[in-house]
Amino acid sequence: MFAKTVPSKKRRKSRTAFTNQQIYELEKRFLYQKYLTPTDRDEIALSLGLTNAQVITWFQNRRAKLKRDLEELKADVTAAKKTSECGSEMDEELPYVPGSTSPDELRSRKGGDVDALKALSPQKASLDSTVTSVNS
């Protein structure tokens, strides 16, 4: 009399395995354009052999990753500032041991790592410039 209807389970679409070339092109575009217009999206999808939905999802996920990376970088910068503030107070308390690096030598080297940071990939450089603008 009462027929039980079993709700049909929707099958989830399998994960897309992007090729290195597709990822390269998507990342390249993302560096200067975080949000795509429908026309741009159609153009990218067609040129890379992807669907619009795949391009939309990739950009959504990439923006989420950027946000996570920025938050992590900001937390790291904050922690580093706290550590360096504590470290500068501790320098005066530590005795100098002959043959070791003096606090003055350490202070003069602090800016030395900046060049290493500048050598980061364009993606990380983009993150750095974004963090700088966020912190300003």
From TrEMBL:
Main location: nucleus
CDD domains reported in the protein's UniProt record: homeodomain
One GO cellular component term noted in the UniProt record for this chain: nucleus
Region annotation Disordered: where it falls in the sequence: 82-113
Intracellular or extracellular location(s): Nucleus
DNA-binding residue intervals: 11-70
Domain Homeobox: 9-69
Keywords of this entry: Developmental protein, DNA-binding, Homeobox, Nucleus
Keyword Lipid metabolism: no
Superkingdom, natural source: Eukaryota
Stored InterPro entries: HD, HD_metazoa, Homeobox_CS, Homeodomain-like_sf, HTH_motif, LBX_TF
Biased composition regions of type Basic and acidic residues, renumbered to the chain: 104-113
Keyword Disulfide bond: no
Example of a GO MF term: sequence-specific double-stranded DNA binding
Pfam families found in the cross-reference section: Homeodomain
Protein name: Homeobox domain-containing protein
Taxonomic lineage of the native organism: Eukaryota, Metazoa, Spiralia, Lophotrochozoa, Annelida
